[in-house]
């Protein structure tokens, strides 16, 4: 009987202690987060609390009289950080946390540059369409298609069937070939390359790195014929004309030295 009475006394005392504990009456407070412009994401002490403003959030009562860090984020704007400290009275009033967002100047600049690129690309496409209308000999989409070792054989110029034919009198002359470019930044000049002896006939395209239909007007193929006892002879052929005519050919009437 005495043990039961003593136990009841202890339980009553424990209940009083709990009632006096700060956490016993602890509860969350409500606050409103707003931003200018609206639609910002809000983080409180690094934790996501609102996907978009305006919004009502909960603040743990344990944060009373402590610094609370709010971060507002919105695409195209610089992040805004707001630090506040609220007492219990202010918490009960339902505080409003406000974030004024400023335009991200770098983002605005990037958007402007992207828009400019789009406009330039549109202008370039229109210019190409005009080129096709003015010069129907250029296959559609091939005006700036560039010959590349990394993607060999993909351009129309490489796939074109060009007849190469060279002969001489007398025959048996050595044939040398080289590229001469008026725009070496795009198409490089090359050293002489020995092909074979006359007569020479073959069908092949132009696999000259950097070559396009547009710059082919400024590229020349030089053919040199050489035979012991005879004067060397050189002929040059415009690559664009060769593409249009589908042929690059010549006959060399050799002249003996000393004549």
Short description:
With 259 residues, the chain is α+β, with helices and mostly antiparallel strands. The protein has helices at 2-20, 88-92, 105-134, 156-159, 239-245; strands at residues 29-36, 41-44, 47-50, 55-59, 67-73, 80-85, 96-100, 162-169, 174-181, 193-197, 200-204, 219-226, 233-238, 247-253.
* Second-tier CATH architecture of the largest domain: Sandwich
Strand order of the largest sheet: 3-2-5-6
- Globally, the shape reads rod-shaped
Rounded to the nearest angstrom, the distance between the terminal CA atoms is 147 Å
Number of contiguous helices = 5
- The structural class is alpha+beta
Please identify the top-level CATH class of the largest domain: Mainly Beta
Question: What would the average pLDDT be, to the nearest integer?
Answer: 84
* Helix content estimate: 25-40%
Cα Rg: 42 Å
Largest sheet: 4 strands, antiparallel
In total, the number of domains comes to 2
Structural features, described:
- With 259 residues, the chain is of the alpha+beta class.
- It has 2 domains: 2-100, Immunoglobulin-like; 156-253.
- It is built from 5 helices and 14 strands.
- The chain has helices at 2-20, 88-92, 105-134, 156-159, 239-245; strands at 29-36, 41-44, 47-50, 55-59, 67-73, 80-85, 96-100, 162-169, 174-181, 193-197, 200-204, 219-226, 233-238, 247-253.
- The strands form 4 sheets. Strands 3-2-5-6 form a 4-stranded antiparallel β-sheet, with no helix packed on it.
What is the topology?
Blueprint: H1 2-20, E1 29-36, E2 41-44, E3 47-50, E4 55-59, E5 67-73, E6 80-85, H2 88-92, E7 96-100, H3 105-134, H4 156-159, E8 162-169, E9 174-181, E10 193-197, E11 200-204, E12 219-226, E13 233-238, H5 239-245, E14 247-253
Parallel strand pairs: 1-7, 8-14
Antiparallel strand pairs: 1-4, 2-3, 2-5, 5-6, 8-11, 9-10, 9-12, 12-13
């Amino acid at each position: 009987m005495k043990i039961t009475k003593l136990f009841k006394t202890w339980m009553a005392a424990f209940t009083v202690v709990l009632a006096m504990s700060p956490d016993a009456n602890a509860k969350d407070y409500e606050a409103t987060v707003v931003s200018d412009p609206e639609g910002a994401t809000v983080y409180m002490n690094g934790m996501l609390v609102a996907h978009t403003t305006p919004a009502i959030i909960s603040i743990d009562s344990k944060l009373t009289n402590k610094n609370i860090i709010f971060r507002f984020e919105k695409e195209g704007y610089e992040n805004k950080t707001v630090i506040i400290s609220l007492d219990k009275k202010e918490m009960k009033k339902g505080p409003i946390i406000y974030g004024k967002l400023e335009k991200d100047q770098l983002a605005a600049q990037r958007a402007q540059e992207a828009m400019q690129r789009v406009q330039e690309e549109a202008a370039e496409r229109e210019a190409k369409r005009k080129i096709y209308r003015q010069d129907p000999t250029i296959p559609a989409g091939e005006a700036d298609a560039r010959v590349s070792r990394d993607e060999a054989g993909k351009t129309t110029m490489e796939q074109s069937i060009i007849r190469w034919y060279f002969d001489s009198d007398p025959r048996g002359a050595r044939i040398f070939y080289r590229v001469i470019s008026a725009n070496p930044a795009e198409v490089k000049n090359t050293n002489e390359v020995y092909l074979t002896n006359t007569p020479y006939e073959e069908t092949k395209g132009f696999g000259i790195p950097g070559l396009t239909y547009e710059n082919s007007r400024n590229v020349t193929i030089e053919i040199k014929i050489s035979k012991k006892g005879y004067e060397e002879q050189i002929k040059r052929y415009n690559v664009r004309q060769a593409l249009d005519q589908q042929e690059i050919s010549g006959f060399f009437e050799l002249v003996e030295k000393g004549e």
